[in-house]
């Protein structure tokens, strides 16, 4: 099922047009979703999202409308979602799908706030803003095959989507792909700082670090080789890369730190879900 199945009479309702909600909306519009098939509920969208809305001719409303939506996308902050969900019941009918991208909101929590409905819990990440997102998703048992196909189309508009059968795996995905872009940005930040410490001018260090991280990511995306093999390909025996990797792959290097980081992020996801 494609985005063309959405219409003014069976619209998509986007609840929250922040950075992620705005990124999703931009992806849907680029994939051909008609602006009249969208209802945006947000009392104060950020400037980036305002530009997207203005270009498409969509006027955001402050509160949910009394219209039954085909899909309701919940893109509000986790801190306010409990108060928002009951207001959305007026937009949910027998055929409505609720797609949540709110971190920490479990299927059980969503069902408690919304009542009986086909519900999908997902966790996109910030590269969705440039169409390169990675999203893990899980559905309750009310979602049928057609509904799953529609949700897949919505999420694939901003990147790749992977469905999981165990909700506990969403916690891991949150710690890996959800929070992962921050780890990569930190790598670029630390690489630039190390270059400055060795004498490179700050502007040049930042430029080289950014290009190195983004270029390596693109090579990883396009290559059929494993990350381990790509690493080996750039590592000459007893060369400069090998010297650096002897630190990064040491007993207290990157691997144990990354395991600790992902475990900490997963624990925090559980805390938010409780």
Description:
With 274 residues, the chain is an alpha/beta fold. It is built from eleven helices and seven strands. It has helices at residues 19-30, 47-56, 81-84, 107-114, 145-156, 168-178, 180-197, 202-222, 227-233, 240-248, 254-273; strands spanning 12-15, 38-41, 71-74, 97-100, 118-123, 133-139, 159-163. The chain has a seven-stranded mixed β-sheet, sandwiched between helices. Helix 1 runs parallel beside helix 2 and helix 7 (180-197) crosses helix 8 (202-222). The mean pLDDT is 94.
Summarize the structure.
The chain has 274 residues and is of the alpha/beta class.
Low-confidence segments? none
Shape by Cα distribution = elongated
Helix content: 40-55%
Strand order in the largest sheet: 2-1-3-4-5-6-7
The CATH class of the largest domain is Alpha Beta
Give the SSE string.
Answer: EHEHEHEHEEHEHHHHHH
CATH architecture of the largest domain, please? 3-Layer(aba) Sandwich
Annotation, overall tally of beta strands:
7
Q: Which structural class fits the helix and strand makeup?
A: alpha/beta
Number of domains: 2
CATH superfamily of the largest domain: NAD(P)-binding Rossmann-like Domain
């Amino acid at each position: 099922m494609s985005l063309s199945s959405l219409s003014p009479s069976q619209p998509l309702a986007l609840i929250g047009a922040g950075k992620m909600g705005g990124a999703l909306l931009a992806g849907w519009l680029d994939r051909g979703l008609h602006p009249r098939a969208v209802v945006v509920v947000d009392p104060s969208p950020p400037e980036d999202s305002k530009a997207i809305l203005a270009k498409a001719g969509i006027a955001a409303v402050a509160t949910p409308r009394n219209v039954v939506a085909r899909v309701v996308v919940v893109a509000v902050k986790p801190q306010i979602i409990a108060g928002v969900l009951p207001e959305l019941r007026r937009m949910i009918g027998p055929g409505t799908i609720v797609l949540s991208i709110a971190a920490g909101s479990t299927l059980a929590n969503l069902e408690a706030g919304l009542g009986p409905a086909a519900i999908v819990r997902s966790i996109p990440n910030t590269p969705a803003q440039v169409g390169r997102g990675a999203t893990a998703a899980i559905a309750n048992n009310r979602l049928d095959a057609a509904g799953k196909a529609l949700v897949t189309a919505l999420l694939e508009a901003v990147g790749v989507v992977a469905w999981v059968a165990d909700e506990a795996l969403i916690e891991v995905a949150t710690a890996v792909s959800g929070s992962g872009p921050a780890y990569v940005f930190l790598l670029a930040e630390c690489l630039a700082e190390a270059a400055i410490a060795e004498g490179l001018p700050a502007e040049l260090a930042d430029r080289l670090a950014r290009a190195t991280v983004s270029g390596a990511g693109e090579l990883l995306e396009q290559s059929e080789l494993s990350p381990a093999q790509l690493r080996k390909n750039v590592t000459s025996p007893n060369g400069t890369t090998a010297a650096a990797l002897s630190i990064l792959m040491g007993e207290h290097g990157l691997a144990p730190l990354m395991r600790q980081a992902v475990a900490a992020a997963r624990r925090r996801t559980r805390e938010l879900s409780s």
